[in-house]
Amino acid sequence: MSESADILVQRDDGPIATLVFNRPKVRNAISLAMWIEIPELLDRLSKDESVRAIVFRGAGTEAFASGADISEFKEQRKDTASALRYNQHTTAAYQSIRQCSLPTVAMIHGFCMGGAMAVAMACDLRFAAEGAKFGIPAARLGIIYGADAVGQLVDLVGPAYAKDILYSGRAVSDREALAMGFVQRLLPAAELERSTYDYLNSVADNAPLSVRGAKLMVEASVSGMTDDHRQRLRELQLTAMESQDYKEGTRAFLEKRPPRFQGR
To answer: Given a cut of 60, is residue 251 above it in pLDDT?
Structure first.
């Protein structure tokens, strides 16, 4: 898999892929080229049967990402037309993360600001190191944050906290982010990486069809369960019932051994 120097895809022999924002000199600020690249990389990873989950992180421990690269705004957002084009690319990046069929975790060290907050919110879960800071300084830049991202913020922390974060543009501390429900795990920095990968490796041991179905079920429940959702989920349930993994799971239970799921 090819990727730019600014976004790295790291794999070992296990089932977890890691997407790294790799611009530590600028706190991993996300450039337009990186926004464009995110959907392409996720599409490839989602089609790789050996990948069971994806971690998003920043290079180093100073920042997950400081948000969009504001130094580009004079050219890339210089007028309404260019701003709309830019927003199309960021929206596509967020949607590709939300719609990814694999479990996704944002592993957050340090600063997670602006557009990086939307990346983290688009992931299924957010695990953070102690000392992490969160914020959406859109009001300090004369920007109105996107509707989908704001909707996710409201879903995570509720309308009052969402208004607080957006009105003030302030940095939210690690403990406050945990209390709000923005992050699901808050760990000592030295333990974050191990805990994140231990968790996802345990998820990867489960039946991929079951995990995928759970993700679709929850997302459909949040967005509103339509007839199309119900039909798609019924089809997925039938596929799971007829799968080799279902047979393997039943055999393993009766034989009192760990199952060996293949995603088929």
So the answer is: yes
Q: Enumerate the H helices of the chain as residue ranges.
A: 32-46, 73-76, 80-98, 115-122, 147-157, 159-168, 174-180, 189-204, 208-223, 227-241, 244-254
* pLDDT tens profile 18-54: 999 999 999 999 999 999 999 999 999 999 999 999 9
Considering the segment(s) 7-204 as one domain, its CATH architecture is Alpha-Beta Complex (3.90)
Domain boundaries, the chain: 7-204, 208-254
Interatomic CA distance for residues 75 and 53, integer angstroms: 36
Rg (CA), the chain: 19
CB environment 213-247: b (16+ within 10 A), e (fewer): bebeeeebeeeeeeeebeeeeeebeeebeebebbe
